[in-house]
TrEMBL record:
This is Multidrug efflux pump Tap. InterPro entries: MFS (IPR011701), MFS_dom (IPR020846), MFS_trans_sf (IPR036259). It holds the Pfam family MFS_1. Residues 7-199 form the Major facilitator superfamily (MFS) profile domain. Gene3D superfamilies: MFS general substrate transporter like domains (1.20.1250.20). Keywords: Cell membrane, Membrane, Transmembrane, Transmembrane helix, Transport.
Length: 199
């Protein structure tokens, strides 16, 4: 039996929306690179900056055990991602966009390990393969769906409007996550909400 099925569903939904808003970058960055920064080479450097940020984040976060509650940490990652996306809308110089992508890489790094750790803690070992194979198609749809919808919206509100809307919506999702008891109260291995529900 699952320790907390509702928490599992909430995590899947949260990850879907995080991937969904990530998809905006596949529309906005090529447009910015092509129209303002010189094309494909500039675009490649932007994602290289993200990769460098992720690499540095991996080194930083792997040196010590995670001390903060995992649920709120995931929400914090999403809020920070949203803030950086809003800032991106006002970045008109190439070095600014590079810096944002570098920091984005740092911010993004802990999300996936935290998400998978919680899954491993609440799903029995014998069920993990089945649960993961069920959830993955759902969360994996987030990015292509976000890219598709972003492409449609960009023609109506422009890339600046799209980036602002995406960043604002991402912050809202992150803040809403803080208000979700099961995720907000999830500490390393325990959920105060689920524990109180079972009493």
């Amino acid at each position: 039996m699952l320790r907390d099925g509702q928490l599992l569903l909430q995590l899947a939904g949260l990850t879907f929306f995080f991937n969904f808003f990530f998809g905006v970058y596949s529309i906005v960055l090529p447009f910015m690179a092509q129209n303002h920064f010189g094309g494909a080479k500039a675009y490649g450097f932007l994602w290289s900056a993200f990769a460098v940020g992720s690499f540095l984040g991996g080194i930083m976060f792997s040196r010590k055990s995670w001390k903060w509650a995992m649920g709120p940490s995931m929400a914090t990652v999403i809020v920070l991602w949203g803030i950086l996306t809003v800032v991106l809308a006002f970045a008109h110089q190439y070095w600014m966009v590079l810096a944002i992508m570098l920091v984005n890489g740092l911010v993004y790094t802990p999300y996936e390990p935290l998400y998978k750790t919680i899954i491993q803690q609440i799903v029995p070992l014998r069920m993990q393969a089945k649960v993961s194979s069920t959830i993955r198609p759902i969360t994996g749809l987030g990015q292509p769906t976000g890219s598709w919808l972003s492409g449609l919206l960009a023609t109506h509100i422009g890339t600046v409007g799209l980036t602002l809307a995406s960043g604002g919506a991402t912050v809202v999702v992150g803040c809403a996550t803080y208000m979700t008891p099961r995720i907000r109260n999830y500490k390393n291995g325990t959920s105060d909400s689920s524990a109180s529900d079972s009493v």
